[in-house]
Amino acid sequence: MTVGTAPPRLARTARTAKRKGPARRRLMPHLVGWGFVAPATLVVVGLALFPAIWALWLSLHDSDLISSGEFVGLDNYREMVHDPALRDAAWHTVVYTVLYVPGSVLIGLPLAVALNQRIRGIGIYRTCVFVPYVTSAAAVGILSNFVLDPEFGIVNGGVKALGLSRAGFLQDPDQALYTLVAVSLWWSVGLPVVVYLAALQDVPRELQEAALVDGANPWQAFRNVTLPQLRPATTFVVIWQMITALQLFDLVYTTTKGQPLDSTSVIVYYLYEQAFKQFNAGYGAAVAYALFVVTLVVSALMLRRSAGGAAGARS
Amino acid sequence: MSGFMAAGRRRDRRWMLHVVLVPVAVLFAAPLVWMVLTSLMPDADLNRLPPRLLPDHVTLDGYRKVLTENDYPRWFLNTLIVSAVAVLSHVVLCSLAGYGFARLRFAGSRAGFLAVMVTIMIPVQLLMIPTFLMFRMLGLIDTLGAAFVPWLASAFGIFLMRQFFLSVPPELEEAARIDGCGRLGVFFRIVLPMARPAVATLVVFTLLGSWNDLIWPLIAINSEDTFTLQMGLSTFSGTRHTEWSSLMAGNTLATAPLLIAFLLAQRHFIATMSFSGLKG
């Protein structure tokens, strides 16, 4: 083996030694490799890892966005525990997440199953469901203020025509958060649908048909054959939508700005206000870090649970 | 015989599916259709009870107003510049890096890829305060550069392209290399044209993200002639909340480019989701 490969390698080295020198020749593939990956890697790492460390440093200082401030140790983190506005924002975020994530699965999955059938015009149906996803938060905000206006909005027009009393929607402190959940689901359920559609196309049709031939009804075939195969897709959807929900900001900014009566103030909105309106940059960084850690822990728990569940199903 | 019956039953069920899907499709599309209709109605028709569903007569007043009475054209141009730079840079840098990580062997490639993947976990909210401070030091705040620099490349883009190149057999490139093409030559002449579905998906996601970005421009930009479209629209809606026709005209114009891009790239989407392993 060594004997077999030695001569050509020697010959090559000898040839290139005259031109470039063996060291340079040996370095070449590494330089080419880094030449390919370095620009993108530098941008990504430079704009993420480096600021992430900086944010940690900031969270230990009482920076006001102008000066870096004094070192205060864990004071910012301690302050979070005693901040009633943050506690409210965290609670609103939890309520929103707890409704939005299951909603994404419970609406996304049946829709994807329906859109996976081979019928005429299925492309048009698919497009309709996904189209809101490409609309911006600003556009969705203006649109929902228009459609859901308590007095002039078309939805209340319909509600009144049915003889029911008008709803306040985004202007009622008791309804605003739930209205935001509904608008968000309309806006973004296209993503879970696409993920489930992709997963459904990998479930072999023969498998389902075999179950039907064996006497299972369509629901049993779906429940016992298709659904277990969709587990990884569900894990992805749940984690992705949870991260999205915990980071809710744009829609709040373009509709309620945290109002009425702070009933839609969520964590990221609160942290934005703290850092860039009240100039409590150190405190804002601490809140961001806490949110990051919570997100990581919850994601890890979900991944572990789903892996454990899959192993359990297999055994 | 039983085949006939099965086919008959299936056709029945298909008919039922339309009954379910038509209202669903209407529910999702109607607000956007109404957005376009509203942009063509005179304000007088909109500010009355109950509001009109269909215009009596079509008018382009909303479009005229939104394009002449404020900085809207400027915001549109700003966003166009930001998104064009973002998409171009994203496609070139992320495909180069994705190809490098998938195909080339070099010292530190694993560590490099790992560093990139770790950043996927870090949320924007954590980064925005230090990034703001960093950009202020670099003199980028309140310029269009502040809006597009974070979009030059992304971990998601690198990952997507790497997954794509891993799913393509390397024989074709090897043939081209034997024919005397250099690494870069092979990349631009053979590899990139082959990667069309992945590139299409990357273009749409980058366009979507950079065009619709709101929180970062809100932080990094504050003078009105550097506003992006989304910033402009959301401030505009606060000050002129009864001029629905021009608001909706602005909305329609801001949504149209993304809609067109999405419709063009749509057929590549689900395929890309499959090979990238995004579904889990």
TrEMBL record, chain A:
Listed GO CC annotations: plasma membrane
InterPro entries, per the entry: ABC_transporter_permease, MetI-like, MetI-like_sf
Membrane-spanning residues: 31-57, 94-115, 127-148, 176-199, 281-303
Alphabetical keyword list: Cell membrane, Membrane, Transmembrane, Transmembrane helix, Transport
Chief site of localization: membrane
Stored Pfam families: BPD_transp_1
Lipid bilayer topology: Multi-pass membrane protein
CDD domains, sorted: TM_PBP2
Biological process, per Gene Ontology: transmembrane transport
PROSITE patterns recorded: ABC_TM1
Subcellular location: Cell membrane
Domain ABC transmembrane type-1 span(s) in chain numbering: 90-302
Top-level taxon: Bacteria
Family that this chain belongs to: Belongs to the binding-protein-dependent transport system permease family.
Identification of the protein by name: Sugar ABC transporter permease
Species of the source: Actinomadura darangshiensis
